[in-house]
Design brief:
Length: 551
Amino acid sequence: MTSSNQIARSGLTVKWRLMLSTFIIIAAFFGLSAYLIYQIKVATDNTGALFNQDFANMEKVDGIDGLLTRADINILRMIAIGDPIQIPEWKKQNESSFVQIDDLVSSLAGRASGAPSNNDAEKLKSDYEKMRDGMRHQTAVIESGDIAGAATVNREEVKPFAERVFQTLHSMRELGKNQAGQRYKEQLASADFTRTMALATTLLIVGLSVIITLLTTRSIIGSIGGEPSMVADFTRNIAQGDLTKSITVSKGDENSVVFAVGVMQEQLRQTLQQIFNSSVQLSDAAEKLTTVTEVSASSMKRQNDELDMAATAVNEMTSAVEEVARNAEHTARSSGSATGAAEEGMALVRQTSIAVDNVGGDIAKTSNLLGDLAEQSRDIGKVLDVIRGLAEQTNLLALNAAIEAARAGEAGRGFAVVADEVRALAHRTQQSTTEIERLVTNVQNGTELAVDSMLSNTELVTKTLSIAEGANEALGRINSAVSEINDLNLVIASASQEQAHVAREVDRNLVNIRDLSAQSTQGAAHTMGASQELSRLATDLSAIVSRFRLS
C-alpha cells in the first residue's frame, strides 16, 4: 500500500490532524477570551450605569441640599443683619443658586428610573418651586423692611415646603444608597457568575483539549500502527537485511504504516527468494552449458584433426594421380614408337583381335568401375556440402549461444536450448564424417576392383602373346611396347585426368570444411567463456541475495 492510498482512506494527514486539533484548542481559548472580555465590558458598563444612576443622582441631591441651605443662610443673613448693601448681593447669590437648583431638579426628573425615584423627583420639583417662590417672596418682603412679614412668609410659604423638600432629598438619598447597595450586590453576583462561568469554561476547554489531544494521538498512533520507535525498529531491521521477523498488526490497522511496512517486507522477501532460486537455477544451467560446450569443443577439435588427416590423404592421392598422368604420357610416346612394328605384324594382329576384344571388354568394365568411382566422388562432394551447411548452422548457433549468454534471461533456459542444438549439430557432423569415411572406403574398394580387372587384362594379354608367338619378328619387337600400352595407357590414361580433377576438388572442399570447423571450435570456445561468465554472475547474484536473511 502506498502513502497516497493511506491518506485517501484516513481522510486527513497527520499534519492536518495536528493543525486541526491545535486550531480547535486555540479557537476555544479565543472564545473564552472573547467571553471574558465581553463580561468585563458588561461589568464596566454596569459600573458606569451604577455611577450614573446612583452616585451621580446622590451628588445632585447633595448639591440641591447644599444650595438650598446656602440660600436659606443668605435669607437669615438678610433678616439678622439687614444690611441694605449686602441684601442685593445675597439675593443675587440666591438667584444663582435657584438657577443651579432648577437645572439639578430637572436633571433628576429626567434621569430618574423606576416609579419611586420618579415620584420623588416630581414631588421634589413641585415642593422646590413652591419653596423657591416663597423664598423670593420672603426676600422681597425683607427688601421692603418688613421683618415681621418676612417671618410670616417664611413660616407660611417657605418652611412647610422646605421641610418637605429636605425630607424628599433625604428620602432620595436613602433610596440612592439602597439602590447602589443593591446594584453592588448584583455586580458582585454577576462577577461571581462570570468567574464561575470562566472557570467552568476553562475547565471545559482544558478537558476538550485533553480529549482532542488523546483522540489526535490515538488517531496518529492508529495511522502509524504503533509507536514510532517500533516502526523505526521494523524499518531498521529491513535496512539491515533481516526479513525473518514477522510484523503483526491489530484488527482495524490495515491502513497503518506498520501494516504497509509488513506488506513491503513480505513482498521484498518473496522477491529476493525468487531471485535466489533463479540465481541457483541459472548457476546450474550455466554449469551444464559449460560442460556441454566443453564436450562440443572437444568433439569439434577431434573432427578438425580428422579433417586435417583426410585433407592430407586426399593431397597424397592427388600427387599419385598426377604421377599416373605422367606415366600415361610416357606410354603414349612408347605407343608411337611401336606403330611401325605394329604395321609389320598386322596379319598376326588379326589373329589376336579376339583376345584384344576380350581385353577391351575387361577394360570397359574397368571404365565402368572408374565411372562408379567418379560418381561416388561426387557423392562425397554432396556430403561435404551437408557438412558445410552444418558447420554454418553450428556457427550461427554458437553466435546465438553467445547472445543468450550476454542476456542471461529467465534462468538460462535459452542456454539449454542452444546447448541441445549445438550437441545435435555436432552429432550430425560426426555422422557426415562417418559418411565421408564410408565413401572413401568405397573408392578404395573400387580401386581394388580396378586392380583386379587389370590383373585379368594382364592374363588376357598373356594369352594374346601366346597366340601371337607364331607371329613374325616384328610383333616380337612391339611386344614390350604393347605391354606398356596395355598396362599403362589403356587403364590409366582415360581416367587419370578426371581423377586428378576430382581429387583436387575434394582437397579444396576438405580445406574449406576444416576452416569452418576451426571457426566452429572458436565459437564454441567463446560460448564456453560466456557460460563461465554467466556462472560467475549467477554466483555474484547469489552472494548479494545471501546478505538478506529470508528464513
